[in-house]
Amino acid sequence: MLPSQKFTAAFSAESETPRTLVENAYLALRQDIIEGKHAPGTRLRVEHLKDDYGVGAGTLREALSLLVSDALVVSEGQRGFWVSPISHADIEDITRTRLLLETEALCASIRNGNDDWEAGLVAAFHRLTKVEEKLNSTAQRMREWEDRNRGFHEALIAACDSRWLRYLIGILYRQSERYRRFALSSNVRRDIHAEHTELFEAAMQRDTKRATVALEKHIRATVDIICATPEEALQKPVRRSTRAMLAG
Amino acid sequence: MLPSQKFTAAFSAESETPRTLVENAYLALRQDIIEGKHAPGTRLRVEHLKDDYGVGAGTLREALSLLVSDALVVSEGQRGFWVSPISHADIEDITRTRLLLETEALCASIRNGNDDWEAGLVAAFHRLTKVEEKLNSTAQRMREWEDRNRGFHEALIAACDSRWLRYLIGILYRQSERYRRFALSSNVRRDIHAEHTELFEAAMQRDTKRATVALEKHIRATVDIICATPEEALQKPVRRSTRAMLAG
DNA sequence: GTCCGCTAGAATCTCGAGATTGGTGGAGAC
DNA sequence: GTCTCCACCAATCTCGAGATTCTAGCGGAC
Fold first, then answer.
1. What is the ipTM of this complex?
2. Which end of chain B has less Cβ packing within 10 Å, N or C?
3. A80 - beta bridge partners?
4. Strand C closer than 7 Å to the CB of B82?
């Protein structure tokens, strides 16, 4: 499934409209997991969820299978599905890996970027700026910010010629989104727009080193806030077997 | 699905036995795609395949969904599944990305590795050596070599503390396996065992730089052979829509 | 000769019911 | 009081049939 879905989300832009019920259920489930409506570590019972999402059991199972690939859901034969647990160690790991990949992609993008890339970046930054100027955090506006933030980060590395790099970065970005809500609910003062501006200007000036540093500071800032929150707050208790499975 | 499967293949070792029909079908399909029994770009019709693999249509669809995540299969809503096409540009991309990740993981592994890591590496190298000494290339022995080669490469980075890095490397490794058969069928002379030995000794001596160079040469050698073979030989014609989807 | 629209066929997508497996609670023995 | 065993219950896993969608081939019009 998720033909367009999967590969679009991965290798190019995520824009096509879902055509099948499986795609619908996949997108809805993914959104709910990222937003924390399904808490990390909780069970995902097919019998209950099929009613919530208005599809048959088989259809929902297929959607869950697709989420397993994204590592947002884990499953064990004959025992069912769970939302992937989260932890300090996990976000630390994700962040390090993200930095490795995104730094590389950003450098390639700066190296290869033509006028189209610059135009796309300017547009994405403008869209992001517009929404960041208004600081009220309605749920609707939050969702909008998420979209534009993703658009900005995609625009940054759009000129990277490695589709695989962009694909893997997409997976990690979605993982990071799960943690972001904790950072946003924190009361640590932080001028995200200033970080974005620095990143934008450095990229436009083709200053690889400055852009790299800005990206690292930007990504690090989020994870530092998350690691400042207690581990218990991150997720509800996890079943023993699942925890054991992921402990190694 | 593929709870153990997916995550085991990803984050730790791939050893658990499949428990459900979906897992069986997934593993069998994956093997057949990697070995080229299903040529790149060809269609995977559920109606036909369900008989070949002895499962129901729904079960096979679930297995295919899992393969979509591995990027070994692509799908498009209401139109079905295809084996992912392969190309010179793709293997080049995979190789560059692999090098970025594996180099990082190897350095981390050398940095962190304790006696257990060394022991595991010695054992894996020994197993690989035993099979490389006998150069007859039976299908059975080939399969054995594939397994031990994977074991050796996993042992190299086993002490890398980033699960995500190891997970992504696993995805890329399976992709590379699809191309290897072209390199093996080539008549270019190449002493793979010498490459492995160099890699092994450099790692054991904790010589990061030497190990990195050896790894790069090792991985590069394969892709160079593949890019020497004509593009047409790599795959059968691809459907227009699929090609268009992957062209961007 | 080229293009458009229609029709028939095939394949996908979806759903509900039955078979199989794993977890739980209580009774009984030591 | 603790451990083991067993039976019941819930949930997963699997399959086949029906509805929907896409593709291909053919005939006709320009």
1. 0.84
2. C
3. A76
4. no
